[in-house]
Amino acid sequence: MTTPDVRLQKHLVRRFSVIAKPLLAEFRELIRGSKPWPLLLFGPAGTGKTLASLCLCDITPRATYFTADTLADRVVADREFPEFVKLKQLAVLDEIGTRGVMTGPRADLHYRSIKEFADARTGKATIYITNLSPKGKDGNPSPLVTLYDDRLFSRIACGTWFELKGEDRRMA
Question: Which of 13, 20, 38, 75 could bond 126 through an S-S bridge, CB–CB 3.0 to 4.6 Å?
Fold first, then answer.
């Protein structure tokens, strides 16, 4: 098998061989249509969430990747952004919730950008990546609900969830 063209985030090294086998199986189910999009990948830092998503982007002709921060910058700079992201076969939004609770104009922009992205990607192959669990603990809501709100949470968490576990591979 030849190595796919690495088009997005070229500085990040990745190989299909290091993706967790259960996640590869999940990708197959999503691609077949056996499970609903979007895919919400969550788990500790360094467990392979971004690596796996970028590998899938590498084999998808029209894919795009953003972090939550770069997304906010793109939305401000490009009025045509929602149409751009709608046309992609696969879109990945990484680092959701990594800034914790933000306040002020940057927080509003961050929220609005993620909402615009989610609205444009409804019903399409989309991967959301976060270190925060979508599950609440001890009767409390998910940290993602607390950080954003239940409306945005329902947009990013309405499909398939997959948790990656383990140690930070980058620290090994």
Answer: 38
Distances (CA, A) of 90 to 21, 39, 93, 108, 149: 21, 11, 10, 26, 25
Q: Six-digit token pair at 110?
A: 């961050």
Residue in the block written with tokens 């576990």: 165
One-letter amino acid at 19 equals: I
Which of 112, 134, 128 is CA-nearest to residue 40?
A: 128
Parallel, antiparallel, or unpaired: how do β-strands 126-130 and 90-94 relate? parallel
Structural contact between residues 85 and 121, judged by C-beta atoms closer than 8 angstroms: yes
Q: What is the pTM of this model?
A: 0.89
What single-letter amino acid sits at 29? Answer: E
